[in-house]
Write a structure and sequence with these properties.
The complex is a heterodimer of chains A (112) and B (114).
Chain A: E1 4-7, E2 10-14, E3 19-25, E4 30-38, E5 44-51, E6 56-59, E7 62-67, E8 72-77, E9 86-94, E10 100-102, E11 106-111
Parallel strand pairs in A: 2-11
Antiparallel strand pairs in A: 1-3, 3-8, 4-5, 4-9, 6-7, 7-8, 9-10, 9-11
Chain B: E1 4-7, E2 10-13, E3 19-25, E4 31-38, E5 42-51, E6 54-57, E7 65-66, E8 76-78, E9 87-94, E10 104-105, E11 109-113
Parallel strand pairs in B: 2-11
Antiparallel strand pairs in B: 1-3, 3-8, 4-5, 4-9, 5-6, 7-8, 9-10, 9-11
The chains are: A mainly beta (112), B mainly beta (114).
């Protein structure tokens, strides 16, 4: 059964720092991996979607990488801003399965 | 604007009073799903639908019902709500019969059962 973990559970950084969030999964036979952002009490906003054949995706200050063989994905945020403060979740989808399996999330605080 | 719309956004009800949370998407997506999110437990899938008239149980289906009579709508029904169903509920949709695409979420419905 696929399990997804995210480290760290919480992270606090000063504004302007570059940072990396980690997502690990146990079954490397994934179809795609998606990173989401969630503000408190709000819905999930899709940030980046990486298909299994891709190594990375970029959107603005965000870059997500995927290494299926090691069961890892990283979300890199450049020049962090207070507005980046939120919980970041990753989700993986396997072949033939109907579920996206979600990680528990990393709660990010960017201090002014 | 492409979106997933849930209603109501907030609801307080009492034990045993049937309620329905509606979900509608305007992206012609085939796949739709319901999740609940609880502190410390993360997101858990309740039910999903691969297409019209096709639904299946997720990880925590007990106490819930769904229907998919139209492609755009996927209501979540609580026949006899109980306090342990107090939670934040999310509807999501995705394109493709094999759910290969991006997953889009609604804004969430916060339900309190007294």
């Amino acid at each position: 059964k696929q399990e997804v973990t995210q480290i760290p559970a919480a992270l606090s950084v000063p504004e302007g720092e570059n940072l990396v969030l980690n997502c690990s999964f146990t079954d490397s036979a994934i179809y795609n991996l998606q990173w989401f952002r969630q503000d408190p009490g709000k819905g999930l906003t899709s940030l980046l979607l990486i298909q299994s054949s891709q190594r990375e995706q970029t959107s603005g200050r965000l870059n997500a990488s995927l290494d299926k063989s090691s069961g890892r994905s990283t979300l890199y945020i450049a020049a962090s801003q207070p507005g980046d403060s939120a919980t970041y979740l990753c989700a993986v989808k396997g072949f033939g399965g109907q579920n996206f399996v979600f990680g528990p999330g990393t709660r990010l605080s960017v201090l002014p | 604007e492409a979106q997933v719309t849930q209603n109501p956004r907030y609801l307080i009800t009492v034990t045993g009073k049937k309620l329905t949370v509606t979900c509608s998407q305007n992206m012609n997506h085939e796949y739709m799903s319901w999740y609940r999110q609880d502190p410390g437990l993360g997101l858990r899938q309740i039910y999903y639908s691969m297409n019209v008239e096709v639904t299946d149980k997720g990880d925590v289906p007990e106490g819930y019902k769904v229907s998919r009579k139209e492609k755009r709508n996927f209501p979540l029904i609580l026949e006899s709500p109980s306090p342990n169903q107090t939670s934040l509920y999310f509807c999501a949709s995705s394109a493709g019969t094999q759910n290969t695409g991006e997953l889009f979420f609604g804004e969430g419905s916060r339900l309190t059962v007294l």
